Amino acid sequence: MALMITDDCINCDVCEPECPNGAISEGEEIYVIDPNLCTECVGHYDEPQCQQVCPVDCIPLDPSRVESKAQLMDKYHLITAA
């Protein structure tokens, strides 16, 4: 699954620099995650780095973007090959 940022986001800016895929950016009101670039840090780290640094725990799995670890690894390979 890709991750998502909820409305609980306080725009603290700690998640964006932690994303190894550049999937996190400033949205109109809160930070957003591009699900096409989010691999939950598969291929880079054991755990999603944005979740580790978020002070308000507002980065859950996106239930509308169900992906297996194998699919996330395939996405990682596509992103890093570019």
TrEMBL record:
NCBIfam families xrefs: di_4Fe-4S_YfhL
Domain 4Fe-4S ferredoxin-type: from-to ranges: 1-29, 31-64
Alphabetized Gene3D superfamilies for the sequence: 3.30.70.20
The entry's keywords: 4Fe-4S, Iron, Iron-sulfur, Metal-binding
The keyword NAD belongs to this UniProt entry's keyword annotation: no
InterPro entries: 4Fe4S_Fe-S-bd, 4Fe4S_Fe_S_CS, PSI_iron-sulfur_center, YfhL-like
Record SUPFAM superfamilies: 4Fe-4S ferredoxins
Protein name: YfhL family 4Fe-4S dicluster ferredoxin
Keyword rRNA-binding assigned: no
Pfam family of the protein (one): Fer4
Lineage: Bacteria, Pseudomonadati, Pseudomonadota, Gammaproteobacteria, Oceanospirillales
Gene source species: Saccharospirillum mangrovi
